[in-house]
Amino acid sequence: MALKKRNKVSAEFSMSSLTDIIFLLLIFFMLTSTLVSPNALRLTLPSSSSKTVAPQSYTVSIKEDGKYYLNGKQMSLGNIESQLRVDLKQSSDKKPTVVIAADQQSPLHFTVKVMDVAKRLGTQAILATEPAN
Question: Which of 62, 68, 102, 110 is deepest in the core (most CB within 10 A)?
């Protein structure tokens, strides 16, 4: 009489090592996300004692030499206006905000031009500043 061997393969999977890895990844990304600067451009912002906090929808940065950046991408002022117009039509924000981060040494007329664009588009414009000591 021939006897057959029956090998049973266990279908168990230990999740304990996987949860440890996911937990360590979560801690890693939480720590590194605090180190990421939202403003990648090196700007010296003017200081102010007011502390108005608004939800940040779009950031227009102005360097000392008059170069404009929309959310970190260099653009001309006309391109910024057309890009904002397209983004605002697609956005679900009821009150979109344009944060203007102008370098302290940049001439004022560059900032005023961005404020005019924001007004034409019907958005709120806020000037970004450094906290005063």
Answer: 102
